[in-house]
Amino acid sequence: MCSLWRTVDPPARSLIAALCLAVTVAGMSYGATAVAAGFPLWFPVALGVLVLAAGSEFLFVGIVAAGGSPWAALVAGLLINARHIGYGLAVSAVIGTG
Questions:
Q1: Which distant-in-sequence residues (6+ apart) come within 8 Å of 16 by Cβ?
Q2: Which of 45, 50, 78 is CA-nearest to residue 63?
Q3: Taking a C-beta distance cutoff of 8 angstroms, is the pair 86, 73 a contact?
């Protein structure tokens, strides 16, 4: 069995490393923002595992930290992710219909 790093060409490796760095920085920023807003450390971790949408996670923490209702934050998160419906409908035109 071959290692993943041996099967991926060097330009792709550098792109993968850059993407991992960007995700790490964004995740650290999200965690620091949530903890600074008064949430316990487990909360941003749990939200990150369960939600899997960074925009919604930042939005939820921001709304609740500003005194808003968790239900309002949930609705706002659903609205911000509604943009993915259009992406999903348009993707078949880009990648073809197998």
A1: 8
A2: 78
A3: no
How would you write the pLDDT of the chain (98 residues) with one tens digit per residue?
567 667 788 888 889 999 999 999 999 999 999 999 999 999 999 988 888 788 889 999 999 999 999 999 999 999 998 988 888 888 877 887 65
Distance between alpha carbon 66 and the CA centroid of its chain, in Å?
21
What string of DSSP letters covers 13-79? Answer: HHHHHHHHHHHHHHHHHHHHHHHHTT--THHHHHHHHHH--HHHHHHHHHHHHTT--HHHHHHHHHH
